[in-house]
Amino acid sequence: MPKVARLDPAETVFFLCDMQIRFKPAIYGFDEVVLTVNKMLKVAKLLNIPVVVTEQNSKGLGPTTPEIDLESLGDLRILTVDKALFSMMVPDVKTRLQERPHIRSVVLFGIESHVCVLQTALDLLDEGYDVHVLADGVSSCNREEVPIALSRMQQAGTYITTSESAAFQLQRGAGTPQFKEFSKLIKDEKNNTTQAIQKLARSSL
């Protein structure tokens, strides 16, 4: 039987891949990816999920775009690393994961879907992690690359989902102390969710 990979906040880390200033004019739906990223960072804060951030050659491509509120994460941002490798699985990231042996699931979002996101997903699968990629949280310069990249990742064993589906999986039910705040977050993000999924997930079909 196929493996059932449920998301548990106590065993999950978020990976934010290369959402940098210089990419903004080139990436299809960049602003919509930002909307999804910021929503997921709010989920991380609410459910106490650590976040790993990478930047590709930040000297040339700039830092993470300021529209993404990394500072609000505080200690939940366990690493921000500059990299030359396309994959996020550079030595510093591997070390952080090894320090947290309870982590078994990675929720992955960012750019580009067919390069850094794809190679990160494959490397994580090689390491035995369950990988969940957000269809409304990834993109590429050419929108046509996205469905092909998602299909390739799915063929390899990645789970393709959406930000709202992943958020509800992590929340799990209504009988928790934070559910009222979670429900408000989902309602507050409704328009952003619609905008992102219509722009990005449609290009993934």
3D structure, described in words:
- The protein has helices at 30-47, 58-61, 91-98, 113-126, 145-156, 163-171, 179-188, 190-201; strands at 12-17, 51-56, 77-83, 105-111, 130-139, 159-161.
- By secondary structure, it is an alpha/beta fold.
- The protein has a six-stranded parallel sheet.
- The longest helix has 18 residues, at 30-47.
- 44% of the residues are buried.
- The mean pLDDT is 94.
The total of beta strands comes to 6
How do the strands of the widest beta sheet line up side by side?
3-2-1-4-5-6
Q: Helix amount, in percent? A: 40-55%
Low-confidence stretches: none
Q: Mean pLDDT across all residues, rounded?
A: 94
Provide the gyration radius in Å: 16 Å
The helix count comes to 8
The largest sheet is: 6 strands, parallel
Brief overview:
The chain is an alpha/beta fold and about 200 residues long. Helix content is about 40%, strand content about 20%.
List the main descriptive attributes of the protein structure presented here.
single chain, about 200 residues, alpha/beta, 6-stranded parallel β-sheet, 8 helices, 6 strands, globular
